[in-house]
Records
---
Amino acid sequence: MVRIQTVLGLLIALTLPFVLEDYDLYRFTDAIVFAIAILGLNLLTGISGQFSIGHSAFFAIGAYTVAMLTTEWGMSPYLALPFGAVSGFVFGFLFGWPALRFSTVHLALATWGLALVVPRILKAPPFDAFTGGVQGIYLDRPGPPFGLPLSDDQWWYLVSLLIVVLSAFLIGNLMQGRIGRALRALRDHPDAARTMGINVALFRTTAFGVSGAAAGLAGGLAGLLADFVAPDTYTIFLGIALLIGAVAGGIDTLRGAFVGGLIVEFLPDAAGIISKTVSFPVYGLLLIVLVMLMPYGVVPGLDRLWQRLSGDRSQRPPPPLS
């Protein structure tokens, strides 16, 4: 069933650039970018059990890395994007190491503080020669190569789709492999995992690094799509939105990241359609209803509904995180 959903979803995704207008396609490309960042959160929170509401900071670090490499050093955006992921990994790993001593509540406060301080650092006078200060940096996004008969939006949608598929493949292998099993053991039974010889510091900081890499890659891609990066784009609200997407989509599933990206991009629009004057409270109400109807997220909720309709009782919904 999962393979059928994956193939069907990929076929629909490949059809979109040829049936949608450029602006609508740009919105779906934005949703793909959010899905890349949410993939990292699913590994960090859903599999590792570590909590972060500050991934907007890693998003910003990746965006500025790509922006400075392309504008100051003249590097190709295609070559700069991997460096955005590398910068996110380095900062995530360095942040995750001291965070090992934090409890869940203190880790949430630490990531909150990280999300607040990074935009201010990017605007600080000592760094504005590199970051552009409050005015940000304008990027020059290249068009389709080799004379391909595609618009800019079509081309970058396909590039983003390729990146998210590769990201899902790599993170999926981590989740299902030795690292994923070790992280689940540390999440569910940390004392037992330690007695089995699992290196707590290494695995948890690696999870933070990989999650930061996904956010950095997404940030760099988002900056290229917008042709602009600025500190006020990467506020704490972006970090909260990414966490909302991860939880609402399905915090420990790969498919949930794609649904989460759509939720982050389009659910505020749905709230605005219902009521333009009080769209933010309506957005919160829609989230509450969604969580009440599908407490494990949209993807696990739909899987459970399918099992009931098909009479398949072989699989059960995932247990809540400890």
Note: The beta strands are 137-138, 228-229.
---
Amino acid sequence: QVLTPSPDRRLVDCPCYRQCGGCAFRHIRYQAELRLKEAAVRDAFQRVGGFPLAPLPIVGALEDSRCRNKAQYPLGVGKDGKIIAGFYARNSHRIIPAGDCLLHPVAFGEILCCIVDFLNQNLASVYNEGTGKGLFRHVYLRQASSTGEILVCLVTTKARPPKIGELAELLREKFPQIVGVCVN
């Protein structure tokens, strides 16, 4: 319950904020977020590590939206039996489906949707932490900020999943900014 809002408080602009574990600071101004992160680093160095060093000030992004250049999305199965991708809910391994996350480039959501659609259409299996079975575990995306080029990495339990070549071709055809698709 907020009795008196901080001057650093702002309206949350993400509809998934309360559920999703993708970000923790959408309710405060970006400068306040940077101060909190700098204090956490200082605490880790000085109190926890015993180093008398003061960390250098954090250099923040120019904008607090669309500023992250990488994301890792766990894959799972939704209530309807279809494959979903998103972020773990806070303090859990329950996946909250990701749409267009305000922290990531718009293309990440589009690429993720394409991958999930392909996996569902091809009846792919996703890894189940309880049974240890399943093939696809995560989708990892990274974008070069200077060129806009994107790398797609599929984290799997097999070195060469079935139809991976088809998926790579589809992604490269649909998204020309993708310069590589790899399997880990």
Note: Helices lie at 30-48, 106-121, 164-174.
---
Amino acid sequence: ISLKFICSGCKGEKMPSIFLSHNQNDKPFVRRLTNDLTAKGIRVWIDEAEIKIGDSLIRKISSGIYDMDFLGAVLSPNSVQSRWIQEELEQALHIQISEAYVKVLPILLHDCKMPGFLLDKVYADFRDENNYQLTLEKLVERINQRYDHLKQSFPEGGLVQERIGDV
């Protein structure tokens, strides 16, 4: 069952949402970010809030990745070495490719070796605590952007098949 969250002031529109893929060692930052994003009207999926005793981990995580608008990849030395997080990123990347829109938003917490497919992406840079609020606002702005799946990544008039062929 997929629940659609509706924002009370959004005139029936689906609430913008993000799945936060992270390593347990980065949990304090993820909790803070979750609280701040939620306060800005963004639905946040994190494991400790969504997975209950008896739930299937794989099923809940897969559903969360698919149902949320974006996957925020919290990047740190711990997370980029995690096989579990690599699996989450791969699933989100498959969605991004098959549905032709940006799904993965890189969130840089600490200097680390970036996954290959994120090397050319602009990321939310949370490495400097002094810039936390500014970076948070930029991330909120990106998550709040309403998009047409096909028009977001492709020029006006280009067919998806033609554009994928160009790649």
Note: Residues 73 and 89 are 7 Å apart (CA to CA).
---
Amino acid sequence: GSFASNFESYTQDQFPLRETFRQAKALFSVKVLGRQDNNQIYESKDGFLAKLEYPMKETSIDYAASRFQAVYDRYLSGNDRVFVALIPDKAAYLEGIPKLSYADFANRLKEKTPFARFIDLSGSLTLDSFYKTDTHWRQEAILPAAQALAKAMGKEIGSGFTATDTGICFKGVYAGQSALPVSGESMYYVTSPTL
């Protein structure tokens, strides 16, 4: 019963010159029609890609907080060393695109997780902390965020790390989703004598 629909999905993905047609459609939408996004992926003037995460969905925050509460109630009840940190999305640092309010999101999360101490990471991250074409942080750029987490937990992280280029030209998840022609970037890993 599902063979025909599965085969149809497979053939759409295997269509000759599929990526060329996707890129042409994306360029037409952005360059000719003047859309700001393609497939809900925005490109900044600096080449950063970010997904539209707007408007804020309070029910999603409430659901996540209820799951945190359930874990706290079952395993950590009475523990005063419980923390919650909100990692701002890359879009929070981009100008000129629709985005949700990080402050409103953080306040809602704090309100719904009174059992945990909130760690604010917004000041320890910048746009350059993220890969241009992906959702993830750059490993060599997250030391300030790691130090902020450690400090809030009463610990300390040194800075004796070495960033090493992997030699990989990295294109992240947003590069494929946007279908826009974007350049790859160097990918680094961080090491130290301890590691």
Note: The mean pLDDT is 89.
